[in-house]
TrEMBL record:
GO molecular function terms attached to this record: oxidoreductase activity, acting on the CH-OH group of donors, NAD or NADP as acceptor
Record's keyword terms, sorted: Oxidoreductase
Protein family according to the UniProt entry: Belongs to the NAD(P)-dependent epimerase/dehydratase family. Dihydroflavonol-4-reductase subfamily.
Oxidoreductase listed as a keyword: yes
Pfam families: Epimerase
Sequence intervals crossing the membrane: none
Protein name as annotated: NAD-dependent epimerase/dehydratase family protein
Residue ranges constituting the NAD-dependent epimerase/dehydratase domain according to the UniProt record: 10-247
InterPro entries assigned: Epimerase_deHydtase, NAD(P)-bd_dom_sf, NAD(P)_dehydrat-like
Length: 355
């Protein structure tokens, strides 16, 4: 069991990101010193919210320049740290070159951070932000899983460079992390595997992230004729950050943790907004039939292939989140709270305007 000394600094890679910002907030509120590794420490637009949190809490933040693709880039930031959180990784649905834009940053970035941890003797634990995407590609994979439910023992075997390359990148990155961790003995590795993450961003600029594109489409009329019942999991960004925090400091934390609050689908997620916003925004109210999607989906959106529709629409998605609740004591927010808090940010920023 690994005990972390809270007087030592804690490294967070990609510290100004969506999940990482909430994690940094939690660490600063605990009075810790955070070594924030970011691409550009001088970028006020991306870092100001973290500096503001540090001023309002008892913690301290120090920024370090780091690049996922540069070897040894994290060495300086990692010095004296017993705990390392590696959250930095791209989340992009549509890419021109999956190898260059997804695979290389995810795999080489993870390799660089873990190799630094192997060299720096102070490191006792690395917590990696992985994904449920490292466990499955399509909802049909959950149906085909033992007992029809995803568990931490399962690995994604159906994604590739050509199909769902994001899922492939997360799978390869996590496997690389375990491979490096298994070759050494001075730190242990814990991975957090969240499903779709939604909830309010701490950084105002984070409304441009991939997760928020789904929210925008629900509120701007794109789905006013209905939404497909694409099976998926959903979890609140604040709960994911708390899971990271506990996975870092609870001595008994070990292995992988599926971090998903709700077994749900795209239509159900949209419908959770109806009570508060249904009279002002063209939210989805009904399911788009699968046969219709098979006809028009591929024409409307190149990412929505017939294979994707066949494997995800009207397919029940299920994951077992009992391990994270039992071992880390995590309780999850209701879907309605997550969705309303996230949607309200888009309304407040006038990204979405009421009809």
């Amino acid at each position: 069991m690994t005990k972390i000394n809270k007087t030592k600094p804690v490294l967070v890679t990609g510290a100004n990101g969506y999940v990482a910002s909430w994690l940094v907030k939690r660490l600063l509120e605990e009075g810790l010193t955070v070594h924030a590794a970011v691409r550009d420490p001088q970028n006020e637009k991306k870092n100001a919210h973290l500096k503001g949190i540090a001023l309002r809490t008892t913690g301290t933040i120090k920024f370090f320049k780091a690049d996922l693709l540069k070897k040894g880039s994290y060495d300086e930031a990692m010095k004296e740290c017993e705990l390392v959180y590696h959250t930095a990784s791209p989340f992009i649905a549509s890419v021109k070159d999956p190898q260059l834009e997804l695979i290389d940053p995810a795999v080489k970035g993870t390799e660089n951070v873990l190799l630094s941890a192997s060299r720096i003797s102070s490191v006792k634990r690395v917590v990696l932000t992985s994904s449920c995407a490292a466990i499955y590609t399509d909802a049909i994979d959950t149906v085909n899983a033992p007992n029809g439910i995803l568990t931490e023992e399962i690995w994604n075997t159906t994604s590739s460079l050509d199909y769902q390359p994001y899922s492939y990148s997360k799978t390869l990155a996590e496997k690389k992390a375990w491979e490096i961790a298994d070759r050494q003995s001075h730190f242990d590795l814990v991975t957090i595997n969240p499903s779709l993450i939604l909830g309010p961003p701490l950084n105002p600029g984070d409304t441009t992230s991939e997760s928020f594109n789904i929210l925008k489409q629900m509120g701007d009329g794109t789905m006013k004729m209905g939404a497909p019942k694409v099976g998926m999991g959903l979890v609140d960004v604040r709960d994911v950050a708390e899971t990271h925090f506990k996975a870092g400091f609870l001595p008994e934390a070990k292995g992988r943790y599926i971090t998903s609050a709700h077994n749900t689908n795209l239509l159900e997620i949209g419908q959770s907004l109806l009570p508060k916003y249904g009279d002002r925004f063209p939210l989805p109210r009904r399911a788009v039939p699968k046969w219709l999607l098979m006809l028009v989906g591929p024409m409307a959106n190149k990412l929505v292939t017939r294979r994707f529709i066949r494997n995800n629409v009207d397919i029940l998605w299920q994951a077992d989140n009992s391990k994270v609740q039992r071992e880390l004591g995590i309780t999850f927010r209701p879907m309605k709270e997550t969705m309303e808090d996230a949607f309200q940010v888009l309304v407040d920023k006038k990204i979405l305007t009421a009809k």
